[in-house]
Amino acid sequence: TAEHTADKRLRERARAVIPGGMYGHQSTALLPGAYPQFMRGGRGARIWDVDGNEYIDLMCSYGPVVLGHQHPRVEEAAAAQAALGDCQNAPGPVMVDLAELLVRTVRHADWAMFAKNGTDATTMCCTIARARTGRRKILVATGAYHGAAPWCTPRPAGVTPQDRENLGYYTYNDMESVRQAAAAAGDDLAGILVSPFKHDAGYDQELVDPGFARGLRALCDETGAALILDDVRCGFRLHLGSSWEPVGVAPDLSAWSKAIANGHALAAVLGNDAFRDGARQLFVTGSFWFSAVSMAAAIATITALAEERAVEAMERSGAELRDGILAQAHSWDLPISYTGPDVMPYLSFAGDEDHRLGDVFAEHALRGGVYLHPRHNWFVSAAMTGDDIARALEATDRAFAAVRKQIGN
Ligand code: PMP
């Protein structure tokens, strides 16, 4: 089993100089005990912790890694730009190249703006909607994650009621609940924020009902509110374009980050012409928002996604993983739910509300050499080979065996 000597030492040092030793979504306080807190690196679909233990990566850095770690073309493009300059007095030409590429790639987009994190992008979408409409209220789905700023963080610490007073709430896939929330907002409705499918951490996932997506579009058309798609987690993993293009619904604004630069720090807001003036009014910026390296990496990523038919590759691997997992759960006589798109699946055990069985499963999967998550959707990358999937499935089979043992026969 895995040795974690270097990891333990780093955790001890971190406890003294980092509040809580670690914070945010990558804190292992949210994971079973065996998970390493610190990683050394990765290549393709393999990653190594600081003690040198190797894992098949089914989390992909929580989404950013889509072509695999250290993708050669992306890293070459980033290195070539880094040799010229990164953080300068003004952006490089790559900013315009990337905006043009995104406008060509994403059907609803007439323009692009850039930032660093998904939270920057979702926040900016809300601000643009308000600037354009002169109204205040944004509707969000109860339990949906849109980032870690005071208006959207899931933890109450340090958040004031005023931070949330311009939000209204609806239930995902329930148009009647949206109509009620819109009625409550009245003529102050600035926008409706929605994720491509329901992917709340800790819960079974739900694909979008196309009728619901069309209903949101119609309501926004009626009221002049902005339809805002939070494509931060799904963007460029489900489709090479907006995740709702296959659904046939175009948002007015969309928020992107994670996969667009294969792990380089970049976020984007895309929008249509109706919201261009609203966007132009904002003063939004950051010291690192115009850094050229991540923009060069994004151009290489989007180009490689298309040329390597990466979405199809992920769908094939995701289907193979799903078939393997479902067969294993069946053979161990363990009732599970395996929900969401094959490339972003979520596994839960029937009746496991406290996630105890999920934790046993994840911990044994980790010991067997696959890094997955007990209460967050997983991510399949285009770098997964048949051998990677076979090794991942060997580990999950042992993990199911451990769950079987935990429950008893
Ligand atoms: N929206 C969604 C749907 C996300 O999954 C995330 C990140 N998990 C965010 C917004 C926030 O992105 P970031 O952590 O980069 O600020």
UniProtKB/TrEMBL annotation:
What SUPFAM superfamilies is this protein classified in? PLP-dependent transferases
What are the names of the required cofactors?
pyridoxal 5'-phosphate
Q: A GO molecular function for this record?
A: pyridoxal phosphate binding
Where, if anywhere, are coiled coils annotated? none
Keyword annotations: Aminotransferase, Pyridoxal phosphate, Transferase
* Entry-linked Pfam families: Aminotran_3
Family classification: Belongs to the class-III pyridoxal-phosphate-dependent aminotransferase family.
Q: Which PANTHER family match?
A: GLUTAMATE-1-SEMIALDEHYDE 2,1-AMINOMUTASE, GLUTAMATE-1-SEMIALDEHYDE 2,1-AMINOMUTASE 1, CHLOROPLASTIC-RELATED
Name listed for the protein in its UniProt record: Aminotransferase class III-fold pyridoxal phosphate-dependent enzyme
Species, as recorded: Trebonia kvetii
